[in-house]
Amino acid sequence: MKRPEVQQAPFTLDNDLSKTEKTRAVVEAMVNGLNDHDIAGMGRFFDEDFRWIGNTGCGFKNGLEEFQNNWQRPFQAAFSEKVCTDEVRIAEGEWMAAFGRQNAKHTGVFMGIEPTGKDVEIRYMDFWKVVDDKIVDNWVMIDFPYVLKQLGKDIFNGEGWEKLDSTEIQHPVTPLK
């Protein structure tokens, strides 16, 4: 049986590769703004109508105001002293991706868990599309199961597949040479 052909990477078919360095600059400045906890100033990096597309538990935020009110402010209220560190960044044209971690203190209610005061690591992956010097799309994966585990709640009830691993990796993993 022949499989139907699947079009791969449709979002990057018209990617303008001449925009790579500009994309890097926009994302670099935006991450610095996040580390400055500058919620009110995010409009200088994000298009007013941008889309923030998160995994389950994060949701979908349509537009800058919804992102600020329904993601940034609640997240900052739950996790203070937050510092974002992109560990890897890859840019090509109008697209940039990163993975990394945020280190923060749990000082507000998070998914029903009252503040613990614990220091937590919040792992993430982001893909941004930059058009006309503004982020228009931000695809996000945040490792909420890991955050919850640090706060004492194992959502997999001990059945996560890491139980099959030969070793436990402590983050950050040192790059191989």
The radius of gyration computed from the alpha-carbon positions, rounded to a whole number of angstroms, is: 18 Å
The CATH architecture category equals Roll
State the helix count.
Answer: 3
Strand count, sense and barrel status of the largest sheet are: 6 strands, mixed
Helix content: 10-25%
CATH class type: Alpha Beta
N-to-C SSE series?
HEEHEEEEH
Strand content: 25-35%
Mean pLDDT: 93
CATH fold annotation? Nuclear Transport Factor 2, Chain: A
Q: Overall 3D geometry?
A: globular
Number of domains: 1
Low-confidence runs (pLDDT<50, min 5 residues)?
A: none
Distance between the termini: 43 Å
Class of secondary structure makeup = alpha+beta
Short description:
The protein has 177 residues and is an alpha+beta fold.
Structure description:
- This protein is an alpha+beta fold.
- The protein has one domain: Nuclear Transport Factor 2, Chain: A, CATH 3.10.450.50.
- Helix content is 21%, strand content 34%.
- It contains three helices and six strands; from the N terminus they run αββαββββα.
- It has a six-stranded mixed beta sheet.
- The longest helix is centred in the first third of the chain and has 16 residues.
- The N and C termini lie far apart (43 Å).
Q: Can you tag this structure with a few keywords?
A:
Nuclear Transport Factor 2, Chain: A, 177 residues, 3 helices, globular, six-stranded mixed beta sheet
Task: Indicate the topology.
Elements: H1 20-35, E1 46-54, E2 60-62, H2 64-78, E3 79-92, E4 95-106, E5 119-131, E6 134-142, H3 144-150
Parallel strand pairs: 1-6
Antiparallel strand pairs: 1-2, 3-4, 4-5, 5-6
